[in-house]
Structures are given as C-alpha cells and as structure tokens.
Amino acid sequence: MMAGVIAYLLCMCRKNSEHEAVRKIMKIGCVEEAYITYGEVDLIVKVVCDTMQELDNVVINKVRKIPGIESTRTLIAVTS
Q1: pLDDT tens digits for 5-33?
Q2: Which of 30, 33, 37, 48, by CA, is between 20 and 30 Å from 1?
Q3: Separation CA 67–CA 12 (nearest Å)
C-alpha cells in the first residue's frame, strides 16, 4: 500500500489492560505496528491509512472504543 497518511497513536490504558488492548489493536486494518511501552504512555501504535478520513475512522471508531483505552494522542508524520 502506498502511504497516504502515517500516524503514531500514543495510548493510555487502564491498569492491567495493555496486553488485551494491544492484541485488539493489531487486528484493526491500517495498523502496522503496536507496542506496549513503559513511561508516560502505555502503547505506541503505527497506523498507515490512505486518507485522513480513514485515519479518523480508525482512531475514533475503532481504537478509542477498545475496552481499557482511556485516552489517545495522535501524531501525524509529515516527512521522513
């Protein structure tokens, strides 16, 4: 797939929900990578979508609806 929009999601999770959340996130289309992290955020997720509308759908209607995800921050890549 030719990348139209690359974004990194920083996800904060409810305590002890990280492993289940990352398993569910990896099943979402457009998600290329997802990692549990230590520090201020619990998960980092790389998403590659064709359009901003598709990214919007992934973040709002899929990732944020996963049980255990308490909040997200989206960083959109502009150059590599």
Answers
A1: 999 999 999 999 999 999 999 999 999 99
A2: 37
A3: 12
Residue 23, both tokens:
């398993």
CATH number of this structure's domain 5-76: 3.30.70.920
Alpha-carbon distances of 35 from 32, 40, 50, 52, 75, rounded to whole Å: 11, 14, 22, 23, 15
- Please state the pTM of the whole predicted model: 0.91
Enumerate the domain spans of the chain. 5-76
d(Cα 63, Cα 52) in Å, to the nearest integer? 15
Q: Which residue has the tokens 């990732």?
A: 63
User: In sequence order, what E strands does the chain have?
Assistant: 5-13, 31-36, 43-49, 69-76
